[in-house]
Amino acid sequence: MKSLWFPTAIALALTACQAKQSEPSTDNAVQAEQAATAGAGANTDTTHWQCAETRLSLRFDAAAKQAELSLPGSALTLPQAPSASGARYADERGNEFWSKGSQATLTLQGQPPVECTQADLPSPWAQAEARGLAFRGIGTEPGWLIEVGSGAAPALHAELDYGERIVDVANAEAFAGGYRGSTGDGVAVELRIRRETCSDGMSDQSYPAAIALTVGERSYRGCGRYLGQ
Fold first, then answer.
1. Which stretches make up the C-type lysozyme inhibitor domain (predicted)?
2. How far apart are alpha carbons 207 and 224 in whole angstroms?
3. pLDDT per residue as tens digits for the range 167-205
4. pLDDT digits over 110-120, tens only?
5. Is the peptide bond between 142 and the residue preceding it cis, with omega within 30 degrees of 0?
6. How far apart are the C-alpha atoms of 142 and 68, rounded to whole Å?
7. Is the Cα dihedral 20, 23, 27, 28 positive or negative?
8. Which of 222, 216, 211, 207 is closest to 73 using CA atoms?
9. Strand order in the sheet with 144-148
10. Are 104 and 98 in contact (CB under 8 A)?
11. In terms of CATH, what superfamily is 44-119?
């Protein structure tokens, strides 16, 4: 009986050892996932720029060899282009962004070049898109802005009269021409959006939508765009 038990025990021990060696290491799996994530992140790089009165964010995709520019009035995708020095991105319509260190030149279709300097903060349009907002609009005299969330009943947030008045609608109703709702204290708010070229009156920047905001008895006009388009 004793002689039968000893070889059987050895066989069981060897089988358990082989099974343990064949199991994938949890630590190795985590390390592989982290390496893959790091590799994916290394393919993109985001920088921020101040070009005259315009703040923009540029996201370079090394895998696609192109740059995505988040401008106030639009989002541009420019393929990487040959250059004697620096990093240059350009399309066939005359849009170009050419950076050399912390300096750059932005040329938009039909407009003269604008000198740019690298900035620390992203553009408010890039920030709004990163927060998942659906629409953003601005106006002047007095300065104001409005941001619209996503979903069937989005939140509306407006900063009016140079930020002196804040208006929030928790759940707005979307209709064919925009959004409407009421603040917590019952003030009616309506944002109408028309898809047409719009200028903010303060710069050469054009936007794809003209907007009219009514808050109670006050009316505001400005420009904006749907984000992610």
1. 49-113
2. 6
3. 999 999 999 999 999 999 999 999 999 999 998 776 667
4. 889 999 999 99
5. yes
6. 31
7. positive
8. 207
9. 165-169, 156-160, 144-148, 135-139, 218-226, 209-215, 188-194, 178-182, 173-175
10. yes
11. C-type lysozyme inhibitor (2.40.128.200)
Give the residue extent of every domain in the chain: 44-119, 131-226
pTM of the complete model: 0.69
Give the DSSP letter string of the chain.
-HHHHHHHHHHHHHHHHHHHHHSPPHHHHHHHHHHHHHHHHTTEEEEEEEETTEEEEEEEETTTTEEEEE-SS-EEEEEEE--SSSEEEE-TTS-EEEEETTEEEEE-TTS--EEEEEESSPPHHHHHHHTT-SEEEEETTTTEEEEE-SSSS--EEEEETTTTEEEEESSPEEETTEEEEE-TT--EEEEEEE-S-EE-SSSS-EESEEEEEEETTEEEEEEEEETT-
